[in-house]
Design goal:
about 300 residues, alpha/beta, Rossmann fold, seven-stranded mixed sheet, 11 helices, about 50% helix
Length: about 300
């Protein structure tokens, strides 16, 4: 590991995350908190907040470090066509209940498209930007190009999912195109995270990390943050189990409601009412055990 990077100098790395929810980002939480510590951003923006696992990790670091940072989490909470479907209001309300009491004094959750929110930020204002929204190549390229002018000279951009090459994910392709043009660092666990120095005045320790020439030192740093991220894996695995159980319960309830509706429609039909009336008459007029009763039962395929 790099001699200039000593984890003991950054105790925020070892903080227990407070926001526990299903997400493919939990393994990056220690690195996110470390980055907040060394960058100390004045303005942090996240594009694609979803359940808020990553966003709340950044906010938690800001609060614990007592920084004068303004934070903004942007999302429509409608889903992106790749992420599994979810109830937009349910997810947003759950996140708000956690977020607002803890971070509401310096942070805002903004329900907006990324393009619509652009004019809310001045050029050169943002010190830390996390892009984790719509994942196809054209979409993430658009996000990068439209938000790049908003970055300060100290600006750092994070790209999640640089190590996913399935479905319509195209972050890996954009990362391969732009990373050679900037100082950068990448980790590959938890779908991958790319760190890009958009400005020329990033803090010295971060610059040393981005310029680290020794491949073994880079590997050691990646391994350290991977193992630190794994520390919290059981908490998030439990959140996944709970999420899947809740979703399965919702599915079963929806199936039951559908069946009940179909039964109600059937019972309200004229044919059903006629058959019930005829069955009642036959039950009243035909003696138990009689040949006529048995023939009627066969005819109507039921028990009289």
């Amino acid at each position: 590991m790099s001699k200039k990077f000593n984890p003991q100098d950054y105790p925020i790395i070892f903080s227990t995350p407070l926001r526990i929810a299903p997400h493919f980002w939990a393994g990056h939480i220690p690195f996110a908190m470390f980055l907040v510590d060394i960058l100390r951003p004045k303005v942090f923006v996240e594009l694609g907040t979803y359940y808020g696992v990553s966003y709340c990790a950044f906010c938690q670091a800001v609060k614990e470090l007592k920084l004068d940072t303004r934070c903004y989490g942007l999302d429509t909470w409608y889903g992106d066509g790749i992420t599994w479907g979810y109830d937009k209001n349910e997810v947003f309300d759950d996140l708000s209940k956690h977020h607002d009491p803890l971070y509401g004094s310096f942070s805002r959750l903004i329900r907006s498209t990324f393009d619509d929110a652009l004019d809310s930020f001045q050029d050169g204002e943002i010190d830390l930007l996390h892009i984790d929204g719509f994942h196809p190549y054209d979409a993430v390229k658009h996000d990068f190009e439209t938000w790049l002018p908003k970055m300060s000279q100290r600006g750092v951009i994070l790209f999640h999912d640089i190590n996913v090459r399935e479905k319509d994910y195209g972050v890996w392709k954009l990362w391969s195109e732009i990373s050679p043009r900037y100082l950068h660092f990448d980790v590959f666990h938890e779908h991958g995270l790319g760190v890009l120095a958009a400005g020329t005045e990033v803090p010295e320790l971060l610059r040393e990390l981005l310029l680290e020439p020794d491949e073994q030192s880079k590997l050691d740093i990646r391994r350290f943050f991977f193992e630190m991220g794994n520390t919290w894996k059981p908490l998030f695995d439990a959140a996944w189990v709970e999420y899947k159980a809740v979703e399965e319960n919702k599915r079963l309830k929806a199936d039951l409601q559908k069946i009940q509706s179909e039964i109600e429609i059937m019972q309200s039909s004229r044919t059903y009412r006629f058959a019930n009336r005829l069955r009642s008459i036959l039950n009243t007029t035909l003696p138990q055990g009689s040949t006529m009763r048995r023939l009627a039962a066969k005819l109507f395929r039921t028990t009289l």
